[in-house]
Model the fold of this input.
Amino acid sequence: MEGEKKQRGRPRKETATDEATQKKRDYQRTYQESRKNKITELNEKIKECEDDLKKMKAERKELREMARKKLSDIKRTKQEKKSNKIPM
Done:
């Protein structure tokens, strides 16, 4: 049992006696394998996109804070200029 690989799922069927059945089985196996690979590939892409989105959101948050700070600075300087004017 040490050297044996544990099978997942149900065991493969024996090779078919007729060629058509065997072709169908082979096609199904390759189709399932390619589908598994495609799903894995797409999951990786999804993960990359989610990471990029997190980065963009963080950058957006920083930009918003910077804009708010600049706006409040501009507002404060305008108020200071108003209060520094001497009425005639």
